[in-house]
Amino acid sequence: MEVERRGRVILLNGASSSGKSSIGRALLPLLPDPWFLVPVDAIGAMRSTVHTRVLDDRDISEILRRTRLGYHRAVAALASAGNDVIMDYPLSEQWRVEDLLETLQGYDVTLVEVRCSQDELDRRERVRGDRPVGLARSQTMVYAHGEFDIAVDTTTAGPNECAATIVNALGTVPLPKAFDRLRHRRHI
């Protein structure tokens, strides 16, 4: 069975607690056509947590790397079947960007930069209580690639406002898009 079209991908990139998940949920009712919200945390939550051995930092790092590589390929698989996908995923390591550039080659990817002030990120982490305060500050590589198609700032704007901004901007994103510019820059 041949798929008529490849799905589109909206990648919400930002530091921990910047509002990616809330924006992703707010996007779903605003976008025409069905979209899948596939946050990386949902993939991680599928992994078992009981281990028969003690894991050291290297083991944990390798498990997380495999999980993230699988996440990239799960998104590509959904899109290859014609599904539109919203990714909720921080590009906090350069290898993630590199792998996604290869894995999502040929797909229409819109890279959305989700920004938030450091003070507000710290406040949100304290309120959440499910991650260490300062995690967002440690994610210095999130925007290091230097490219995006759309930017929103959640410091004062709520998820619904940010989602509306993204939806309104989707049709006006100039070509080549951020992922294509990043690929081009890699091959210069």
UniProtKB/TrEMBL annotation:
Domain of life: Bacteria
Pfam families xref list: CPT (PF07931)
InterPro entries on file: CPT, P-loop_NTPase
Name of the molecule in the record: AAA family ATPase
Protein's organism: Dactylosporangium roseum
